[in-house]
């Protein structure tokens, strides 16, 4: 017997396909939501871990800031203590400084120099005195420059020839005014560490002044015979003089 299906089978197949499509779409949506949730959860966990790290770094930075502030405070306290210690050392040194300075002046003042007055202004001292000649003043400058332990950097302010007060014969002397710096012990240590001295004394060149009572240049003195003054041909003249001296000194053999 032949069976004939009179139902709308095409419509039924269409409904089945639509239901399958909806099911696949729902399944895809669920899978997508699951993937999104998984990725979001992973990112959230990573962000949470990074936030924890950032918080740890912030806490460490705060601790370091506190330590840095303490270190800065300690440095200020150390500098204040050093300043107080230096002030105490300066007071201790300045207490005996006049004695040392006067003793230094006595040691370094050469014969023929008379100090009329001296005045201290801070670490500078103004000296005023009389000298027999300008050479004595130059010697005092050299002594204060190279040999003095408590005095340094002398500067000659004025020098002039005057008549000795109370002298009936009108004797001429040299009146001078100079300033000199007073050296503290720490300045002496710094100078020793500088390394710019020779045998503990700086190399100083002081021009020798004119002789006593002579303000004009000294006259030229003619050299004695037998001494050749080198000029443009100084080397040749010196060699000739040596040869002549050797010839004169050669002994003559006695005749047989």
Automatic annotation (TrEMBL):
Where exactly are the transmembrane stretches of this chain?
A: 21-42
From what superkingdom does this record's organism come? Answer: Bacteria
Position of the signal peptide: none
Any coiled-coil regions, as ranges:
57-91
Q: Which UniProt keywords apply?
A: Coiled coil, Membrane, Transmembrane, Transmembrane helix
Q: Does the record's keyword annotation contain Transit peptide? A: no
A Gene Ontology biological process noted in the UniProt record is: type IV pilus assembly
Which InterPro entries does this chain map to? Extracell_DNA_Util/SecSys_Comp, PilN
Q: What is this protein called?
A: Fimbrial assembly protein
């Amino acid at each position: 017997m032949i069976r004939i299906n009179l139902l709308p089978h095409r419509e039924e197949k269409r409904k089945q396909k639509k239901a399958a499509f909806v099911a696949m779409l729902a399944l895809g949506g669920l899978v997508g939501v699951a993937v999104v949730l998984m990725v979001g959860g992973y990112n959230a966990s990573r962000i949470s871990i990074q936030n924890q790290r950032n918080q740890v770094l912030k806490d460490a930075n705060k601790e370091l800031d506190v330590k840095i502030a303490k270190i800065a405070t300690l440095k200020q306290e150390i500098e204040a203590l050093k300043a107080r210690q230096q002030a105490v050392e300066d007071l201790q040194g300045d207490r005996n400084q006049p004695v040392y300075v006067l003793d230094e002046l006595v040691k370094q003042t050469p014969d023929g120099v008379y100090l009329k007055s001296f005045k201290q202004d801070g670490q500078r001292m103004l000296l005023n005195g009389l000298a027999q000649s300008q050479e004595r003043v130059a010697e005092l400058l050299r002594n204060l420059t190279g040999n003095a332990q408590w005095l340094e950097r002398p500067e000659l302010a004025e020098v002039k020839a005057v008549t000795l007060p109370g002298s009936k014969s009108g004797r001429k002397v040299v009146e001078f005014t100079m300033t000199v710096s007073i050296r503290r012990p720490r300045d002496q240590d710094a100078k020793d560490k500088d390394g710019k001295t020779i045998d503990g004394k700086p190399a100083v060149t002081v021009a020798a002044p004119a002789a006593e009572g002579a303000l004009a240049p000294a006259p030229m003195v003619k050299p004695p015979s037998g001494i050749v003054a080198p000029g443009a041909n100084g080397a040749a003249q010196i060699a000739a003089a040596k040869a002549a001296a050797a010839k004169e000194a050669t002994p003559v053999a006695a005749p047989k």
